[in-house]
């Protein structure tokens, strides 16, 4: 009888970067292995607590307290139309998509004569795939499918033209930042932290499974009266498992069937004496690297308390908040605002729009804010109630002098 022994090595693969592929028999462009990169991002959002907190915190900072305009008083009718057209729930969703997915998309719905944009609606960006570029390198449309993981070549896709490329009643305004080497899609800005987000998930899953299975195999049960057939072995194993396994019984066991006692199975456990320290290091390192990838200056800004001491007092927290607002939040807001202005421009609306900040008034840096409009953009405070702001400006100028 031939004795066979096999060892299976399981490798945990991760995405190093999203792969973009054009297939000759498809009009749309694939994103990620098996065309599932967006789903991969959603899984990392749902599975990693640090990644989840970072995305939620930063997307809330981008939206702030919603859209406003510095000239809202002078152009009341335009301002009212803008608020109706760019619904706050729609804007909240695209700011969340933009941070989480690296891009966002809007359905632009025109009036019958296309003289105006009648409505702007959010469309989940994961439901869209870009059409192959034309000869000029321009993307003229996007294909919609409710769930691309279930897409089959026989499925009929809905093609929606890109904004400004057709005369149809609905178009897609696709919002994405420039990324070198990527034409159709934009990888997320926290790309380098995705492997650590996945590692954080795996650590949690390991501990959960360990607890559910009694932390480690605790029993070796030998049957030394011969080896029964497969059906009998399964029945015996099920019976013992129902009786002994489970977290309350410190529960896993190893079941061996032997032809005799002399041929009984032996166990050689592999134990880590400092396993708890290793898992603690991996957990802390994953958390740190995910936050670094999101460029979080202080964890407290997104509701995460750590033991580094950074940002644990008001002065450090203020410095961290101003730095993150200027280097992370504002650039994302600018990209989104530039695209929203295209919608307003089509309707003949000319407003100086901005996102009202969540920054506390005492955290705002007004040193370089010269005009009343700039002060309003920094603080979100209208000029008719800005006496407190003016006092702060004067105080900061005196300190600089």
Written description of the protein model:
The termini are far apart. The protein is flat and about 95 Å long. Helix 1 crosses helix 5, helix 2 packs across helix 4 and helix 2 packs across helix 8. The chain folds into three domains: 170 residues, no CATH class; 79 residues, no CATH class; 38 residues, no CATH class. The longest helix has 33 residues. A hairpin with a 6-residue loop joins strand 1 and strand 2. The protein has a three-stranded antiparallel beta sheet. A three-stranded antiparallel beta sheet has the order 6-7-8, with no helix packed on it. The protein contains ten helices and twelve strands. The chain is of the alpha+beta class.
Helix-strand layout with pairing:
Elements: E1 20-22, E2 29-31, H1 37-47, H2 49-63, E3 67-69, H3 76-85, H4 88-101, E4 104-110, E5 117-122, E6 128-130, E7 141-144, E8 158-161, E9 170-175, H5 194-212, E10 217-223, H6 230-244, E11 252-257, H7 275-293, H8 314-346, E12 353-355, H9 372-379, H10 387-400
Parallel strand pairs: 10-11
Antiparallel strand pairs: 1-2, 3-12, 4-5, 4-9, 6-7, 7-8
Helix pairs in contact: 1-2, 1-5, 2-4, 2-8, 5-7
């Amino acid at each position: 009888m031939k004795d066979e022994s096999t060892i299976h090595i399981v490798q945990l693969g991760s995405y190093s970067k999203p792969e973009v592929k054009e297939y000759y028999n498809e009009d749309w462009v694939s994103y990620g292995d098996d065309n599932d990169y967006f789903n991969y991002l959603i899984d990392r959002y749902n599975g990693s607590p640090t990644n989840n907190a970072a995305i939620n915190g930063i997307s809330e900072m981008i939206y702030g307290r919603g859209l406003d305009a510095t000239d809202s008083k002078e152009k009341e009718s335009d301002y009212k139309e803008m608020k109706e057209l760019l619904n706050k729930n729609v804007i909240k969703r695209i700011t969340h998509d933009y941070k989480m997915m690296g891009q966002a998309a809007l359905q632009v719905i025109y009036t019958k004569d296309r003289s105006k944009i009648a409505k702007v609606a959010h469309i989940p960006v994961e439901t869209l795939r870009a059409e192959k570029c034309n000869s000029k390198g321009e993307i003229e449309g996007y294909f919609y499918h409710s769930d691309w993981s279930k897409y089959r070549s026989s499925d009929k896709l809905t093609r929606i033209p890109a904004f400004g490329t057709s005369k149809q009643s609905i178009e897609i305004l696709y919002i994405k930042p420039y990324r070198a080497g990527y034409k159709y899609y934009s990888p997320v800005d926290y790309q380098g932290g995705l492997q650590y987000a996945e590692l954080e998930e795996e650590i949690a899953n390991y501990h959960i499974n360990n607890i559910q299975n009694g932390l480690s195999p605790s029993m070796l049960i030998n049957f030394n009266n011969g080896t029964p057939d497969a059906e009998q072995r399964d029945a015996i194993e099920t019976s013992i498992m129902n009786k002994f396994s489970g977290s309350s019984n410190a529960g896993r066991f190893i079941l061996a069937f032997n032809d005799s006692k002399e041929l009984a199975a032996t166990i050689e456990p592999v134990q880590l004496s400092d396993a708890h320290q290793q898992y603690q290091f991996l957990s802390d390192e994953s958390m740190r690297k995910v936050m670094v990838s999101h460029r979080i200056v202080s964890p407290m800004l997104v509701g995460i308390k750590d033991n580094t001491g950074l940002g644990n007092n008001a002065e450090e927290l203020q410095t961290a908040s101003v730095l993150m607002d200027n280097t992370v939040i504002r650039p994302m807001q600018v990209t989104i605002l530039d695209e929203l202005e295209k919608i307003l421009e089509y309707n003949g609306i000319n407003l100086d729009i901005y996102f009202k900040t969540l920054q506390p008034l005492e955290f705002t840096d007004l040193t370089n804010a010269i005009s009343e409009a700039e002060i309003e953009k920094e603080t979100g405070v209208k000029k008719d109630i800005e006496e407190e702001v003016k006092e702060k400006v004067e105080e900061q100028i005196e300190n600089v002098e």
